[in-house]
Design a protein that fits this description.
- This protein is of the alpha/beta class.
- The chain has one domain (2-180): UDP N-Acetylglucosamine Acyltransferase, domain 1, CATH 2.160.10.
- It has helices spanning 2-13, 22-25, 31-41; strands at 16-17, 44-45, 50-51, 56-58, 63-65, 70-71, 76-78, 89-91, 96-97, 102-104, 128-130, 135-136, 141-142, 147-148, 153-154, 159-160, 168-172, 175-180.
- The strands form three sheets. The protein has a seven-stranded mixed beta sheet.
Amino acid sequence: MIKIIDKIKFDLKSDRIGPDCPFTHWKLYLKQSMLKLCKKKFANFGQESEFRAGSYAITCSKIHIGDRVVIRPNTMLFADPREKDKGIITIENDVLVGSGVHVYVANHKYGKKNVSIIDQGHFEAKNTTLKKGCWIGANSIILPGVTIGENSIIGAGSIVTKDIPSNSIAVGNPAKVIKKIEG
């Protein structure tokens, strides 16, 4: 019984949301409780935004979500708790994030051949931004320090390693701009 009480306390106080926090995750299934939870946990959670059940957010206090943003199931937003002004995820207004998208702000170090990667620590965190009106296709991965420009589209399954300019369509691994959106 003590372990259940400890888990409830952890879920309520932790800086995260996700299926691994069942005592708060259930709230994502109901619109009013989802809004209340997200406004409490995230640094900013805009009007008419949705964070759907099945999604994860780590270090919510460093994730800013604008107005009319939709975060679909199985998405992972992974901000970094180590430094105050680094490792922030910003999702501006009117952004669509498909199912299974991952957004990261840091990565493991791997430069020492005789040291296990688990023991090498992490690179310095970088802010990652999804600009107004962009659409991130299902199962895409946005890597640390990347900015997706306004009204750009990232094709499903793409891995974005570098900034994508506004009004562009980018696809692939690594994602490359294949078309500019005109008009």
